[in-house]
Amino acid sequence: MFRLGVIGYGGRIHGVIHDVLRRIESKIRVVGIVDPNEESTRKRLAECDKQDAVFYKNVDDLVRQAKPDALLIGTRCNLHTPYAIEAARYDLPLFLEKPVAIDMDQALALEHAFENSRCQVVVSFPLRVSPLCELTRQYIARDSIGQPIHVHAVNYVNYGTVYWEQGYRDYAITGGLFLQKATHDLDYISYMMGSPIVRVAAMLTRGKTFGGNKPAGLICSQCDERETCLESPRNRNRSGAGGNGHPDKPCVFSVDSGLPDNPALSANEDCSSALLEFASGAHGVYSQVFFSRRDAAARGAIISGYHGTLSFDWYVDQLRFVRHHAPFTATEKAGQGASHFGGDQELGFDFLAVMQGTRPSRTPIQTGLASVYACLAARESAETGKFVPVRQVGQSS
Predict the structure, then answer these.
(1) 150-156 vs 54-55, strand pairing mode
(2) Using CA atoms, how far apart are residues 324 and 225, in angstroms rounded to an integer?
(3) What 3-state class would DSSP assign to 94?
(4) In the prediction, which pLDDT does 266 show?
(5) Please, what is the angle between helix 104-113 and helix 365-384, to 10°?
(6) 131 preceded by cis ω (within 30°)?
(7) Topology, domain 127-209+264-338+364-389
(8) How far is CA 343 from CA 127, 149, 260, 302, 350, in A?
(9) Which of 183, 267, 365, 396, CA to CA, is 20 to 30 A from 115?
(10) Residues of the chain whose pLDDT is less than 70?
């Protein structure tokens, strides 16, 4: 039996344990939890865990008394770093949610904590290990397109309202949407290109679609515009736009989601883009858009070399390879419907392998830090209007 200790037992970690790990290995039990909301957590626990799970006040008590085989951190984003620093003291496998840090002070402290740690980390980067990304990387590794020279990546998010109507609206906790969302994408882009990102120039637009001057705390059921508002549950259902259909959902146009005429960096952006320079000399561009709906969803990349072009989109789970110097184009289709495009299952296999000692993590702490440093550079560039160099993991201060 594998004994798990969980720090921050939210919906995401519950899904990782119940829907991913247990589908691979049934002999998994949650034996210790650090979470201040015990009542809510107990309702979320699977029946097989309710008997054995003990709540502890801190990580040290959990490790010493519950004696888990591994730890998982699923707290809110601003707490990932402090708890990961604590976990670095123990020789236990760690599943760590992204982003691993939300500012430079946290990132530097986290890197320092793991410099001499034996704690092996699986960072929650399902896109990097998804079958479609792995297939693309295999094409590149076989020199099918030659040296990758340019990448054009996009993320048109068709559920983007969650970043204005749920806890993600709290910028102080998430650090913004480069760290909250692009951390996945900059990681897989760097992996596919086979080179770290060394310089970034970025722009963002905020307050053009979401955020506004509606009263703080406003919910749809109390709003006199719910019949005409495009974001009301009724009208979302009619348009098929999805999102939170509960009548008491928070207003995406309230001051809680940011004021459009306030230049202070305290609100999520409607869209943002980053120009990326790689150590190899290649470059590329990444854009994320959060007001897209329905079939506008797209997430993937076009990678170009002298000999060919590769393109893929996770929403259609398809890869296309065009040879530049021969009259052939190939298309490969992947299965659909898996969580995070099949990446969550791969992370589950990786975490179990690390616990069993059979192979190392494909998403170690260094990948989490490299992505955070690139995202922080993008955020700084968007704030200052300047090119910003990206700190590299292991770089002297």
Answers:
(1) unpaired
(2) 54
(3) strand
(4) 66
(5) 160
(6) no
(7) Dihydrodipicolinate Reductase; domain 2 (3.30.360)
(8) 6, 26, 36, 20, 10
(9) 183
(10) 243-246, 260-266, 336-339, 397
Distance between CA atoms of 142 and 144, rounded to whole angstroms?
A: 5
Which pLDDT score is estimated for 263? 45
Look at residues 279, 319, 277, 283 and name the one whose alpha carbon lies nearest to residue 149.
283
Centroid of chain to Cα 179: 8
DSSP assignment string, 23-74: HH-S-EEEEEEE-S-HHHHHHHS-HHHHTT-EE-SSHHHIIIII--SEEEE-
The predicted structure's pLDDT at residue 245: 58
From the list 151, 130, 187, the residue with the least C-alpha distance to 372 is 187
Contact 160, 272 (CB under 8 A): no
Query: What's the length of the chain?
Result: 397
Classify residue 396 as exposed, middle or buried by CB count within 10 Å of its CB (0-12, 13-18, 19+).
exposed
State which amino acid sits at residue 123.
V
Return the CATH fold of 2-124: Rossmann fold (3.40.50)
The backbone torsions φ and ψ at residue 176, rounded to the nearest 5 degrees and listed phi first, read 95, 175
pLDDT tens-digit series, residues 291-321: 999 999 999 999 999 999 999 999 999 999 9
What is the rounded end-to-end Cα distance, in angstroms, of the chain?
43
Beta-carbon contacts of residue 372 (< 8 Å; ≥ 6 apart): 99, 100, 101, 107, 179, 183
Say how far apart CA 231 and CA 186 lie, in whole Å: 30
Rounded Cα distance between 130 and 31, Å, is: 29
3-state secondary structure of 289: strand
Structural domain spans, the chain:
2-124, 127-209+264-338+364-389, 215-250
Task: List alpha helices for 103-257, DSSP H.
Answer: 104-113, 126-129, 131-141, 162-165, 171-174, 177, 183-193, 233-239
What angle, 0 to 180 degrees and rounded to 10, lies between the N-to-C axes of helices 183-193 and 365-384? 110
